[in-house]
């Protein structure tokens, strides 16, 4: 993907957060709390040789994506960036944990295989939950709510400024890249001998752009406190959503729903085949 397309698409999730679905209209605090509880339940799942219990957690992102109308493609495209790190950890378990747990025919399913599946599922579920939060809640609302929940204001300001400046930085890089390609027709990329000068110029232009952004903020009355979101009331529907989703998540953490339904289906089939 070119720098131009990255600069144009970096804020795609932010645009999705401007929707008007029932999930979008929920209080930011309700969505943040349920996301934290969900991520904690998935990460704390301590049975790597039995990852079937994690499959029930797929209901959370599936239902939220359906109710909010969030498309799957932008979420899974960004999810791919986190998978290589988990993949390396999972591959090490494939090598180290070779003890067979059960057999499928003549094929031995080892503890490393099950641990690998568990690690990948945890990564998929937690990152997807965070991406859905970003796709249904504006970054300003997330920052505002986290600040109210005790996050230092200076840290929240750094998050917001970094998020906002990524697009500007990529825009500068895209402009420089376009100028470079115009001056080097037939070149498919930046030559290594020119990379140092390119990055140096990008750094200098970045400093200059940051200074202009800061001066513009001061002209608009910026006093060190970011006020990008209006305060919202926590309604009864938000409380019901928070308690309901959190309770269901905790239940799934300690109760293997997949195994329960599997045993139920087997029992029904056994009764029908009698």
List how many beta strands DSSP finds.
2
| Unreliable spans | none
Order of helices and strands: HHHHHHHEEHHHHHH
Shape: globular
Rg on CA atoms, Å: 24 Å
Separation of the first and last Cα atoms: 59 Å
Q: Could you tell me the mean pLDDT?
A: 79
So how many helices?
Answer: 13
Largest sheet: 2 strands, antiparallel
Strand content: under 5%
- What percent of residues adopt helix (DSSP H or I)? over 70%
Strand ordering within the main sheet: 1-2
Derived from helix and strand composition plus strand pairing, the structural class reads mainly alpha
Account of the protein in words:
There is one protein chain. The protein has 274 residues and is mainly alpha-helical. The chain is built from 13 helices and 2 strands. Strand 1 and strand 2 (107-110) form a beta hairpin. Helix 4 (28-43) packs parallel to helix 12 and helix 9 (139-148) runs antiparallel to helix 10. The chain has helices spanning 3-9, 12-16, 22-25, 28-43, 59-68, 72-79, 83-96, 111-136, 139-148, 153-183, 192-219, 236-254, 257-272, and strands spanning 100-104, 107-110.
Structure, briefly:
The chain is mostly helical and 274 residues long.
Helix/strand layout:
Elements: H1 3-9, H2 12-16, H3 22-25, H4 28-43, H5 59-68, H6 72-79, H7 83-96, E1 100-104, E2 107-110, H8 111-136, H9 139-148, H10 153-183, H11 192-219, H12 236-254, H13 257-272
Antiparallel strand pairs: 1-2
Helix pairs in contact: 1-10, 4-8, 4-12, 5-8, 6-8, 7-8, 9-10, 10-11
């Amino acid at each position: 993907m070119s720098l131009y397309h990255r600069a144009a698409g970096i804020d795609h999730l932010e645009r999705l957060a401007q929707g008007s679905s029932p999930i979008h209209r929920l209080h930011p605090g309700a969505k943040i709390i349920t996301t934290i509880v969900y991520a904690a339940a998935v990460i704390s799942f301590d049975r790597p040789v039995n990852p079937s219990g994690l499959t029930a957690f797929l209901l959370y992102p599936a239902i939220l994506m359906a109710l909010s109308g969030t498309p799957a493609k932008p979420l899974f495209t960004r999810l791919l960036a986190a998978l290589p790190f988990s993949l390396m950890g999972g591959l090490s378990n494939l090598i180290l944990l070779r003890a067979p747990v059960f057999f499928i025919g003549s094929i031995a399913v080892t503890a490393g295989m099950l641990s690998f599946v568990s690690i990948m599922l945890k990564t998929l579920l937690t990152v997807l939950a965070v991406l859905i939060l970003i796709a249904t809640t504006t970054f300003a609302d997330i920052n505002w709510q986290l600040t109210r929940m005790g996050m230092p204001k200076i840290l929240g300001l750094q998050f917001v400024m970094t998020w906002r400046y990524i697009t500007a930085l990529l825009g500068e890089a895209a402009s420089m890249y376009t100028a470079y390609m115009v001056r080097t027709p037939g070149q498919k990329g930046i030559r290594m001998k020119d990379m140092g000068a390119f990055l140096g110029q990008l750094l200098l232009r970045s400093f200059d752009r940051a200074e202009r952004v800061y001066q513009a903020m001061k002209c608009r009355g910026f006093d060190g406190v970011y006020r990008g979101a209006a305060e919202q009331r926590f309604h009864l529907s938000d409380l019901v959503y928070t308690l309901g989703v959190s309770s269901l998540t905790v239940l799934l953490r300690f109760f293997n729903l997949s195994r329960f339904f599997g045993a139920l289906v087997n029992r029904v089939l056994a009764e029908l085949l009698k």
